[in-house]
């Protein structure tokens, strides 16, 4: 079998270890389930392509172990699922159907790579699903006796379940593949998720594809390093050829695999762009980027805030920071240190474009934020490995010994972390801090942060406990935004404030009219004391609009009624 032969003959010891572990997981799954009970989710991407060929090799080795393999594979009997969407790149669709084309129904086609010829179609049994992932799976599992699905999920994938380092004893027992079998989440159709390449890095993926000389989607040769939809994916700027703005090096030349998602760019949809009436005081052709509106909600977790023991300074500070990057804050709320309270609040607020939550993160009984988020999204908590999980010295030594013997091949990120801690080993057990919501969690690492930020879909968990820590985390978040799809930075808000001695009754109706005249501006008023001067505040994204609104307000009263504030 050409894949198995290519890996055996290569000199890459790390890749061989990864291959052996992955094919072991596959053979284990094929021993547990019949061929009719397993399926393979293929999407045309690089990880999925790696898994396709690992499955071919794993199936060959499985049949060889049963003394029924005859030297090569003529077809691929594992049912293949492809979710086709209108937002997929044409190149992805083309590559998928070329790869999955049944040999019996089309002329055999070959492609040339180096000096070798390989068959480009593998006789896949493909089920094309045009609905969403969950609905499609429900329908498929009702029709077919599928009990396990092979997924090309890696630990670096934001949708990955962070199970690779499920528990220290997995390494002490040297049980390969224990974390690669994971039941589907509550609320989903019941099946076993099989993740043979969960511990593979970006470097491992490309080492496999190039060593085995298999075909992959042409977009990867055009600078794309991680492919999503046509709306959120561009070539990775890190691969740009210096003397050209539209030419890029191939994906396998990316030096730092941790930056593979730098080509994921969130683009503003028309639904996010404010549509203003044509007669709203000249507001008919403002730049869409200026006029865009993204909303955030802020949640503070802690009984100490509600009892008044501690004054919350982070919430107002965070609101100002969000306004500085053009985001509108819809709500700022404080909830009890109670899982149900957090879950209910997150459930209500997650309709915002982004939710920021702080407080209640840690190993104490009152630290319920992570559990509340998991409940809001209907997923369970699972153990993970992350840089603030303490590791005992004996554990480090076992891992190092396993690496020397080739029994364990960590990804580059973990190797870097081991090198960092090996000279300053930590003692202790803080596993509670290492429980994260399953399947929706992404750790946001930054060199300046000893504890990574946590992102669960559109919820970002901050660990700051004071303003200076928040300042540091916010600056790191903005820096990460430059190389990742985290926050869309919009035109910042500008404001204008004036003071007046008018009574509420005198100014109420004119202010109501002003709001109708300028629907794009936030117009508010407040008093610092009950009988003190009234402050009128105007906020927006265009200084000229603020000036125009201020002149309109002044015209409704006698000159000198309003005094501008600094």
Automatic annotation (TrEMBL):
Catalysed reactions listed for this entry: FMN + ATP + H(+) = FAD + diphosphate
Residue ranges of domain Phosphoadenosine phosphosulphate reductase in the record: 38-234
MoaB/Mog domain segment(s): 298-382
Gene Ontology biological process terms in this record: FAD biosynthetic process
Membrane-spanning residues: none
Superkingdom of source: Eukaryota
EC code(s) of this entry: 2.7.7.2
Key words of the record: ATP-binding, FAD, Flavoprotein, FMN, Nucleotide-binding, Nucleotidyltransferase, Transferase
InterPro entries: FLAD1_M, MoaB/Mog-like_dom_sf, MoaB/Mog_dom, PAPS_reduct_dom, Rossmann-like_a/b/a_fold
Pathway: Cofactor biosynthesis; FAD biosynthesis; FAD from FMN: step 1/1
Enzyme class: transferase
Pfam families, alphabetized: FLAD1_M (PF24102), MoCF_biosynth (PF00994), PAPS_reduct (PF01507)
Record carries keyword ATP-binding: yes
Domain FAD synthase middle intervals: 493-562
Molecular function terms, GO-annotated: ATP binding; FMN adenylyltransferase activity
Record's protein name: FAD synthase
């Amino acid at each position: 079998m050409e894949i198995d032969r290519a890996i055996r003959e290569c000199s890459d010891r790390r890749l061989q270890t990864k291959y052996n572990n992955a094919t072991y997981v596959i053979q284990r799954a094929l021993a547990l389930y019949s061929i009719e009970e397993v399926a393979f989710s293929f999407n045309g991407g690089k990880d999925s392509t790696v898994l396709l060929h690992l499955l071919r090799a794993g199936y060959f080795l499985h049949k060889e172990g049963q003394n029924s393999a005859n030297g090569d594979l003529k077809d691929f009997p594992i049912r293949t699922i492809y979710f086709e969407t209108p937002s997929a790149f044409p190149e992805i669709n083309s590559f998928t159907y070329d790869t999955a084309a049944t040999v019996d129904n089309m002329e055999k086609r070959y492609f040339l790579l180096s000096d070798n010829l390989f068959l480009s179609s593998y006789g896949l049994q493909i089920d094309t699903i045009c609905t969403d992932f969950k609905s499609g799976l429900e329908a498929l599992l009702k029709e077919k006796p599928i009990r396990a699905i092979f997924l090309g999920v890696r630990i670096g994938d934001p949708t990955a379940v962070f199970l690779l380092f499920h528990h220290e004893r997995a390494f002490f027992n040297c049980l390969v593949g224990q974390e690669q079998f994971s039941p589907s989440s509550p609320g989903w159709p019941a099946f076993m998720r099989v993740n043979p390449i969960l511990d593979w890095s970006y470097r491992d993926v490309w080492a496999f594809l190039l060593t085995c000389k298999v075909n992959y989607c042409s977009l990867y040769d055009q600078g794309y390093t991680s492919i999503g939809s046509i709306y959120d994916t561009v070539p990775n700027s890190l691969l740009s050829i210096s003397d050209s703005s539209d030419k890029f090096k191939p994906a396998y030349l990316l030096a730092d695999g941790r930056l593979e998602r730098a080509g994921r760019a969130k683009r503003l949809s028309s639904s996010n762009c404010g549509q203003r009436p044509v007669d709203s005081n000249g507001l008919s052709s403002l730049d869409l980027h200026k006029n865009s509106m993204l909303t955030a909600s802020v949640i503070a977790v802690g009984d100490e805030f509600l009892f008044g023991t501690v004054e919350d300074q982070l919430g107002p500070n965070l609101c100002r920071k969000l306004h500085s990057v053009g985001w509108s804050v819809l709500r700022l709320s404080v909830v009890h240190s109670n899982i149900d309270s957090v879950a209910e609040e997150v459930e209500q607020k997650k309709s915002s474009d982004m939710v920021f939550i702080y407080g209640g993160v840690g190993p104490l009984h009152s630290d319920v934020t992570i559990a509340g988020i998991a409940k809001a999204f209907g997923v369970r908590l699972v153990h993970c490995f992350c840089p603030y999980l303490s590791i005992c010295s004996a554990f480090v030594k076992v891992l190092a010994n396993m690496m020397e013997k080739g029994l364990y091949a960590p990804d580059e990120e973990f190797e870097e972390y081991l090198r960092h801690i090996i000279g300053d080993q930590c003692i202790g057990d803080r596993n509670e801090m290492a429980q994260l919501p399953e399947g929706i969690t992404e750790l946001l690492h930054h060199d300046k942060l000893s504890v990574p930020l946590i992102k669960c879909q559109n919820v970002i968990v901050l660990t700051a406990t004071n303003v200076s820590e928040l300042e540091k985390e916010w600056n790191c978040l903005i820096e990460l935004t430059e190389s990742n799809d985290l926050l869309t930075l919009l035109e910042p808000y500008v404001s204008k404030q004036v003071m007046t001695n008018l009574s509420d009754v005198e100014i109420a109706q004119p202010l109501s009219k002003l709001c109708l005249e300028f629907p794009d501006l936030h117009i508010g008023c407040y008093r610092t004391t009950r009988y003190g001067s009234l402050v009128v505040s105007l906020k927006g994204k265009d200084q000229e609009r603020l000036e125009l609104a201020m002149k309109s307000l002044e015209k409704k009263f006698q000159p000198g009624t309003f005094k501008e504030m600094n």
